Amino acid sequence: MPTISQLPFDLAAAVAHLSNCDPCIARLVQEVIPFDPNIDHTQSPYESLLESIAYQSISGKAAATIYARIKALSANGGPPTPQEMLRLKTKALRKAGLSGAKILAMKDLAQKTIDGIVPTHEEALKLSDDELVERLISVRGIGAWTVEMFLIFRLGRPDVLPIHDLGVQKGWSVAYGKKHMPRPAELLAFGERWRPYRTVASWYMWRAFEKAGYATTNKIRPPKLKRKRTKPKAATRNSPNAKRVRHKRTRKKSAPKKRPEKPRTS
Predict the structure, then answer these.
(1) Going by C-beta distance under 8 Å and a sequence separation of 6 or more, which residues neighbour residue 254?
(2) Which of 10, 20, 98, 185 could lock onto 102 through a cystine, CB 3.0 to 4.6 A?
(3) All domains of the chain in start order, with CATH
(4) What pTM does this model have?
């Protein structure tokens, strides 16, 4: 378990709070490995996000190989500085294994770091989660999920809930015995009980997913679609009901039959 000095919150208090408010998490605390985000305190936000871009949408092994090649392009063998990244030729980065989209994303990250939009670590510590999300999603190729992972695994923020993360969604389904994954809005509402330690709760959803194994998690169905209430359809011109209505409207009342006049008698 990480020491208190490594995290910006009291982990023992977080686990106690979650165990008291949620029996399911109390059980998971006893069954799986404890919360440990393994924060790399040497990485700047720029370096952390640069690595995240390299790892997007490919296997960890392939990403590690590509990222090692990218670091080999810098002067000191570490991640290229923002200035170095802007100077690197597209051809060299493509040869390292990066796609065109990732090259554009890394160069945009470098430029926005120089411009001060991507904060330094000291600046990031003073910004709220929402402020960091707003700044960082302005970088090409970086979405809310990437920023959430940065908040959890680089800054150690205590109250982050990645509602679109497949592992968290399926872990929730396993932990609470559901056949379907939750909709993001449903997971967000459910997670209110975990505040202010939704990061730690998310960790246990990930561990529940891992513990169950793919044979189980592959059977979990997609979220149930929310049924929309439909208004009864108005009768169309050619529908039988419409014809009856038109018939009723257009049918004229027949004139009353006149009674035959009685012959006058004198």
Answers:
(1) none
(2) 98
(3) 4-38+159-217 (1.10.1670.40), 45-153 (1.10.340.30)
(4) 0.81
